[in-house]
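Figure 2 data, in text form.
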Amino acid sequence: MKYPEIIKEIKKRIFHPVYFLDGEESFFIDSITNLLKDTVLTESEQGFNQLILYGKDTDAQTVISSARRFPMMAPYQVLIVKEAQAMRKIDDLLLYIQQPNPTTILIINYKHKKLDGRGKLYKALKKNNCLYFNTKKLYDNQIPDWIGTYLKEKKIQISPDAVQLLAEYLGTDLGKIASELNKILINSEGIKNITVKEVEENIGISREYNLFELTKAMSQNNQTKILRIVKYFGDNQKAAPFPLLTATLYGFFNKLFLLHSSRTSNDAELVSILGINKFFIREYKNAARHYNLAKIRRNLGILLQYDMKSKGVDSGNATHSELIKELVFKLIS
């Protein structure tokens, strides 16, 4: 079952006796857990019927004993086990999973790891009406769609350039992205459409000097604007931390590599291949005129080299500002 389907089920009050949530993306685990915590029981029922345990402080037998209790004046009890990856003898939960208490909703958070798919516990979770859900980190090119979907559920629209700016500036941390989006919604009460203006005002991104504007200037081969932005980055280290700068530029040139390597000129097909919004295909086609395949390959190598330099490898005494200027000068020369 996929994440949207799980959320839809919970909102319809269709519950499973056990939710085993594991994997790399904590946002999905936390979202499902919090929705169950707020949905299964009313606020007055939660006092006697909702319990949170932590893996490092508990064991399988304690979880089983707690799960086998019956609720008090409520249809269910909710038992949440956080940090279950630190729990001792988690495989001993098999006895409970094979015959779960129908009046308990047991939610197990097993973060940053994946349950062994060959084990008996995993196989038991696939039966007995239990729900096993493995979460995975999204790729860079999946983030813009995720932002659009997240806001659509709240009946909020967002402009393509605002999506791109958020995706490039915030990376793939869904928790951080959701937090920043919620900040915009709180500070712009009643807003129905988020634009670059709201992103800049609420997240502290400069209107003229940001990574989105840098790649745009590089697409246009506007060297005056590129150098102006680079100078700003050099003087304001927080505006473009080196790891974020190199990751953004690597993504930019990697998309150009895919564009040059593609055997199609159809915009719809290219949008799918590059994993971008159709709004930006013209920009990438324009950039491809300034960067041929050989130059792109060279630039990808330069980015890897400077990523290492930013970590102290063969960087000499170069400052943050000097490294940024060196890097971008080499990329556009």
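Caption note: The chain is about 55% helix and 10% strand.
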